[in-house]
Amino acid sequence: MTTAGNNQGDDFIAIDFETATGNRASICEAGICVVSGGKIAETRSWLVRPQGNRYSYFNIQIHGIRPEDTADAPEFPEVWGEISNYLDACPVLVAHNAAFDMGCIRSALELYLLPKPCINYYCTLRAARHLYTFPCNKLDYLCEQFEIPYGCHHRAGDDAEMCARLFLREMKDDGWRGLDSMDYCRGTL
After folding, report:
1. Residue range 57-83, pLDDT digits in tens
2. I need a labelling partner for 114 at 20 to 30 A (CA). Which of 27, 104, 130, 167 fits?
3. 149 vs 122: which has the higher pLDDT
């Protein structure tokens, strides 16, 4: 058995998006947490100007990001270009409730007519449902159970880092044998 930190397979990028409306292409913040050799290497976030810079009241209540915060922010194609530089080095994504975040990527790529890369992803929500019997599998709840520190929940950079730390814990609890052993929570963008 290989332990985390000794296998190239423990390199990944946790990713999180916040949206301005119910439309998944309305990304208003993107965050990543780069994990290299089983250790947090870098966490970044970008405010993103969604198309038309329109927001719903409901979404603002969740994350606190407002149109004035993104009025001068870059649009998704520019931010995706920066994220893609990280993906070139490590084309493995991890997200909590990956169906949402991968849906954001697919929708935004389609909206801006950008090519869709072939990337594998892993879902910490699916892994948690497979590994644990908690009554709740929300990111903040799971992090609280495992005493994983977090900053501001529903801010993309903080959520990406929380997700990365949770996935490292899940890999350990799964008896880390490499990402192939976690096919139960894997998908392809």
Report:
1. 999 999 999 999 999 999 999 999 999
2. 167
3. 122
Say how far apart CA 73 and CA 82 lie, in whole Å.
14
Active-site residue numbers?
A: 154
Using CA atoms, how far apart are residues 3 and 177, in angstroms rounded to an integer? 7
* Structure-token pair, residue 21: 């409306």
Task: Evaluate the CA torsion angle 115, 18, 163, 96 in order and state its sign.
Answer: negative
Q: Which helix (H) or strand (E) holds 47?
A: strand 39-47
In order of 18, 26, 79, 130, the CA distances from 60 in angstroms are 10, 12, 21, 32
CA angle 73, 76, 78 (to 5 degrees): 80
- The torsion angles phi and psi of 96, rounded to 5 degrees, stand at -90, 125
| pTM check: above 0.85 | yes
Q: Half-sphere exposure (CA, 13 Å, Cβ side) for 60?
A: 10
In terms of DSSP H, where are the helices of the chain? 57-63, 67-70, 76-89, 98-111, 124-131, 139-145, 156-173
Q: Report the pLDDT averaged over residues 86-102.
A: 96
Please check the confidence at residue 108 and state whether its pLDDT lies above 50.
yes
DSSP SS3 for 46: strand
